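Technical note accompanying the year-one report. For the benefit of new consortium partners, we illustrate the data format agreed upon in the data management plan: each record pairs a sequence with a structure-token string. No post-processing was applied to the example shown here.
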Amino acid sequence: MYAVIATGGKQYKVSEGDIIRVEKLGAEAGEKVTFDQVLAVGGEGFKSGEDVKSATVEAEVIRNGRERKLIVYKYKPKSGYHKKIGHRQYFTAVRISKINA
């Protein structure tokens, strides 16, 4: 069984036991979180829309961290303009424990 959830402005296809990295949540390692914005559920038939209005996905927070550094380099020719910026995005790693459909 799998589910499509939305969190942090992104959509993820998850199954029980999967470990995914989502945008930072306000939860510490070991806490339980519930994703209630379920878009679709599949497995023994596909359900979406009003059929999954009450569906939830339960997960456990594994850790919080930051991604690898992403380098943003801006350059304009013939004007001497160079700009180098680094960015590290915060994330929360969660393990999907149960899909309630």
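Partners are asked to follow this layout when depositing records. The first strand starts at residue 2 and ends at 7.
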